[in-house]
Design goal:
This protein has two helices and 17 strands. It is mainly β. Strands 1, 5, 6, 8, 13, 14, 15 and 17 form an eight-stranded antiparallel β-sheet that branches. Strands 7-16-9-10-11-12 form a six-stranded antiparallel β-sheet, with no helix packed on it. The chain starts with 6 loop residues before the first strand and ends with a helix.
Amino acid sequence: MVDADAHYWGANGGMTIATGVSSWRDIVAGYSAVQASGAAQPVFSSTSFNGSPGLTSDGIDDCLVCTDAALLTGLPAGDAGGELWSLAQNDNLVASATFFDLFGYANASQSDARTIGRIATPVYGRTVFGTGGGNVSVGGTTLFSGRRVIRGAYSSAGTVLFMDGAQEGSLPGTPATAAARVALFARALATPSNYWTGIGAAFLITKPLSATKPAVLASYLMSRRNP
């Protein structure tokens, strides 16, 4: 279902669990997103995502980060095309001055990042890409409440945001992205921030998808959203 050159963290396996999840392995290529601090480890449950497996992030300091060089060198960088997908639940419905990041990768700042998450207010989905000297942020039109499939598609022409398979917004621009780390449930900086409150069931990074594949992937993830 997922391309061989994609990366897929799915809540149905590949985890090291003590009190929380200390390591979650990409089931396509075997790269692990890790968290050494027990207090900052997301919590796994076999039933938390509408009766299916999920990881719960507390919105305080929980996150998983991958810095495997073999993964990072293969990620779409600069203005290369690529996509971020996640099947996740947002439990923070409070409008605020803060943007919250669900999944993405970056080097030093939002100026070289690719990220999906939610805007500060109203509580809609969001995708971001860095342009080198700044970033372009695209907000959605659907309340990010409960379980959603969110997708950010990036190319040399800009970015497009999708929610539950439907396009919600787009903006032009030339990405200038880099990758020193991939982060789940937080902003992918050297010191993570902007933590996600909710549950994640699947996280994917792909190269550009051919014409028919987004609909197939969206249908698969939507079927898991509402089993």
